[in-house]
Fold this sequence. Notes:
Blueprint: H1 9-15, E1 24-29, E2 37-43, E3 46-52, H2 61-73, E4 91-93, E5 96-102, H3 114-131, H4 144-154, H5 160-174, E6 183-186, E7 195-198, E8 201-205, E9 212-215, H6 216-227, E10 229-231, E11 235-238, H7 240-251, H8 258-284, H9 297-309
Antiparallel strand pairs: 1-2, 2-3, 3-5, 4-5, 6-9, 7-8, 10-11
Helix pairs in contact: 3-6, 3-7, 4-5, 4-8, 5-8, 6-8, 8-9
Amino acid sequence: MSVYTPVSEAQLSEWLRNYSVGALLSHDPIKAGIENSNYFVTTTQGRYVLTLFERLPAEELPFYLDLMAHLARHGIPCPAPIADLADQYLQRLNGKPAALVTRLPGRSVERPGVGECAELGALLARMHLAARSYAAYLENPRGPKWWRLAARELKPLLDSRQNSLLEEEIAFQAQRRFPDLPRGPVHADLFRDNALFEKGRISGVIDFYFAGVDCLLYDIAVCANDWCLVDAASDARLEAQRTRALLAGYHAMRPFIELERDAWPVMLRAAALRFWLSRLHDFHLPRPGMLVHAHDPGHFRHILESRTSAGAPWID
């Protein structure tokens, strides 16, 4: 989440007249992340998050907003979109599609332990089960088709070693798509900063704007590659105890099938590839903006290299 499009107090006050949320008290830019423009908004009736969508295709936005509304109705602690006076979730502000959602309590955990990883696994399983009754369909927008396009665009900007690793991994993944794995809507970006905790329990899951339909196991792999590293700064291997806690927390709510055990190492590599590619793209092909926070692509290159050379912990 970043700020590319400034919004003044006067502009926001006028825009909020389309909603029954009270008068504007304050709005503050959210500086983390890199995709959309986001603000914390406080009114006389509550606390919200305003998102201006900078590059997501307009036809995809209803999938994300309706998914969040669906999950919130099913008891998942995710932001609930606020409908305007015409009963629409999506409006426009300063020329950009925009939405207002509830702001959830809690804080992200920088160094999750076994308990937090188990809690995350259980929540992820509940979310996948709740999403089974969500009828809309959108293929994972950062899936294999996007990998190939991004790699082609980046090729002139990378050195021979980086290009070789990309080409080899994309070819490896193309031969292992596992069509029989359980599939459904996935968050696909549930890093530590997208989960909020209060008193050891998850109080919120945020930022659903990379969601899509994919293998459910892929969603868990994305989490493991961020939550379960031996050392996020220096050691990209998976720490066994936290990884098994994540998997066991999930398995208790939605038991894995045998094919998922077999596919686990491949999914970890797929999740590492996706985020290495997106970080390379944002690093080498940045968009002009203000308060923009770009991530180091080298971090996920190390994770991908680690996943190709080391075993992957699984539940006993």
